[in-house]
Write a structure and sequence with these properties.
single chain; mainly alpha; 10 helices; elongated
Length: about 170
C-alpha cells in the first residue's frame, strides 16, 4: 500500500483487530495482501477496506491467497474490462469509476452491484457478476455482496479506529 515505516504500528493494529473480529488470522491476511495490495493501492483502496473484505470472505471460508486472488481478479477485470465485461456493466448501468475517472471504493462498488442486480433472478445476477468479476472471483464477490456495503463500511471504520489493538491483544495473551 506504499505506507511509511512509521505506520507499521497501525498496520499491526489493523491486522490484529481483523483477526479478532473475523475468521482471518494475521497470516491469512498477509497471504491475501501479497496478491491484492499492489493492485488495490493503484485503485486507491485503503488498507482497512481491503482488510475488511478479506475478513468478510474469511468468515465464509475464503482465506489467504484465495481471498487475495479473488479480489485481485475482480479488480483487474474492473480496471481493464474486456468487451464482454464492458457490455455486462453497461447492460446493468454500472461503472467502477466515478465521473472524474477515479476508481470507486470497494464497498461502494459492492453496494452499487447489489442495487443494479436487485431486480434480476438469481441466475441472471450470478451470470452478470461472473461475467463482470470472473468465474474465479464469483464466490468471493457473492460473499461481499451478501455482506453488503453497510457492513463492509462498518468493518472498515472499525479497522480505521483500531489503534492499540495489537498491544491490547498481546497484554491479554500474556
Amino acid at each position: 500500500f506504499g505506507l511509511a515505516a512509521d505506520e507499521a504500528g497501525h498496520v499491526a493494529d489493523v491486522l490484529a483487530k481483523n483477526a479478532a473480529q473475523t475468521n482471518a488470522a494475521v497470516v491469512d491476511t498477509g497471504e491475501a495482501m501479497k496478491y491484492i495490495a499492489p493492485v488495490a493501492k493503484g485503485a486507491g483502496w485503503s488498507l482497512e477496506s481491503v482488510t475488511a473484505a478479506i475478513g468478510a470472505m474469511a468468515d465464509q471460508g475464503i482465506k489467504g491467497e484465495q481471498a487475495g486472488t479473488t479480489l485481485r481478479g475482480a479488480l483487474t477485470r474492473l480496471m481493464k474490462p474486456s468487451d464482454a465485461v464492458a457490455q455486462a456493466m453497461e447492460n446493468i448501468g454500472f461503472s467502477a469509476y466515478d465521473s472524474e475517472g477515479k476508481m470507486k471504493p470497494l464497498s461502494r462498488i459492492i453496494g452499487e452491484l447489489q442495487e443494479k442486480t436487485a431486480g434480476l433472478s438469481d441466475e441472471q445476477r450470478d451470470n452478470v457478476i461472473a461475467t463482470i468479476m470472473g468465474t474465479n472471483a464469483l464466490s468471493g464477490m457473492q460473499i461481499l455482496m451478501a455482506t453488503g456495503q453497510e457492513k463492509l463500511d462498518s468493518m472498515t471504520t472499525s479497522l480505521q479506529n483500531s489503534d492499540g489493538a495489537a498491544k491490547s491483544m498481546a497484554e491479554t495473551m500474556q
